[in-house]
Specification:
- With 166 residues, this protein is α+β, with helices and mostly antiparallel strands.
- It has 7 helices and 6 strands, in the order βαααββαββαααβ.
- A two-stranded parallel sheet has the order 1-6. A two-stranded antiparallel ribbon has the order 2-3. A two-stranded antiparallel ribbon has the order 4-5.
Length: 166
């Protein structure tokens, strides 16, 4: 009895991950876990920036702030801001691997003053221009993460016997 061989060549990491999810769900779970590890240099760098900012970068950020709708955005809690740096993997989106700040006060610290100049953003400029933690971390660790992802794709390709390129 002859075996059936199937060759799939996928160009583009997003398409490759989409195919992996369909064809090998168990391997996709492993890929997801290792992708988080591959992006660890960015998350650690962003978390270090947040740790260096101190418990409340500005004194007013330690106070309770709410929006007009009642949503609480402050007080800034350093440990929550550090834990808020998360890796997200969504193969169906344009950017399938993202590092995001999920904590509202951490995101405000990162971005305040970016679209319009205001006193709050200017006061935070002593920690760097907006984007203060996420983008500089991604920029600094881009080459290392690219190598990590290339290794990961190679490992997955060898396990699936599928030629994957990105």
């Amino acid at each position: 009895m002859s075996g059936v061989t199937m060759k799939t060549e996928v160009i583009g990491i997003r398409d490759a991950v989409k195919e992996l999810k369909k064809l090998e769900p168990a391997l996709f779970k492993e890929f997801r876990k290792e992708a988080v590890t591959a992006l660890k240099p960015i998350t650690l760098n962003a978390q270090a920036t947040l740790n260096n900012a101190g418990p409340a970068p500005l004194s007013g950020m330690a106070r309770k702030w709410t929006t007009k709708t009642g949503r609480q955005i402050f007080p800034y809690v350093q440990s929550k801001a550090v834990r808020g740096v998360k890796v997200s993997l969504r193969p169906s989106k344009a950017a399938f691997l993202t590092v995001q700040q999920k904590d509202a006060s951490g995101a405000i610290f990162d971005i305040a003053g970016r679209s319009s100049s205001n006193r709050f953003g200017q006061a935070l400029d002593k920690y760097g221009k907006a984007s203060r933690s996420m983008w500089p971390a991604a920029d600094a660790k881009q080459d290392e993460v690219r190598r990590n992802l290339a290794d990961l794709v190679g490992k997955v390709a060898s396990k699936t016997q599928t030629k994957l390129r990105f």
